[in-house]
Design a protein that fits this description.
Blueprint: H1 3-19, H2 21-24, E1 34-35, H3 36-45, H4 52-61, E2 67-69, E3 75-78, E4 99-104, H5 108-114, E5 116-117, E6 124-126, H6 130-137, E7 143-148, H7 150-155, E8 161-162, E9 168-170, E10 172-173, E11 178-179
Antiparallel strand pairs: 1-3, 2-3, 4-7, 5-10, 6-9, 7-11, 8-9
Helix pairs in contact: 1-4
């Protein structure tokens, strides 16, 4: 499978496992898991004929490690980023002192007043690495890197979860915990 096809299948999997499983005929359990045979059938119905080996390749090669396969290869789920309600089962943990969030300048006004909001997703996504956050921000234009005083938030009672692919998740980040550029 070439890289271009891998990206298309990955985007289909995001849609099918994170956002609109019912539209492609997928059914997720409470933990966000779907049966691999059902996902492969849904992919084929939607123009992506993929074998189990190719699915494994997409999961293994995904640059953000968005997906996880069960040990027996019978189930698959997205690691985070759901706009449908699932319980991923992550245990609250203590984050690093600073985490990062990538955005673009046009959102800074609302972030200054409202903070970082989860929007349609279940959590706000934060990164331990500046480069990762910068890459996320540049998807929408010239990136602006925000620092989040995550450990202070944690000490103030905010819960943080570390996803299987290394993304830190929290419900919201209020403006007082955000360090904006040039501040």
């Amino acid at each position: 499978m070439n890289k271009k096809t891998e990206i298309k299948v990955s985007k289909f999997l995001s849609f099918a496992l994170r956002h609109r499983p019912e539209e492609v005929g997928n059914e997720l359990d409470e933990g966000g898991w779907a049966d691999v045979p059902s996902v492969l059938e849904a992919a084929a119905r939607n123009g992506y004929a993929v074998s189990l080996e190719e699915l494994q390749q997409v999961v293994a090669n995904n640059d953000k490690k968005r997906f996880a396969l069960s040990d027996d290869l019978g189930r698959i789920r997205a690691s985070q980023g759901h706009s449908v309600t699932v319980e991923l089962g992550y245990t609250p943990g203590e984050p690093l002192e600073l985490l990062f969030h990538g955005t673009v300048a046009r959102f800074l006004g609302s972030i200054r007043t409202q903070g970082l909001l989860k929007g349609q997703r279940q959590h706000v996504h934060l990164s331990a690495q500046e480069a990762t956050a910068r890459n996320v921000g540049q998807r929408r234009g010239t990136p602006v890197l925000l620092q989040v005083r995550a450990l202070a938030m944690h000490h103030d009672g905010f819960a943080f979860y570390l996803s299987d692919n290394g993304v830190w998740l929290t419900e919201t980040v209020t403006p007082n915990y955000i360090v904006f550029p040039n501040e």
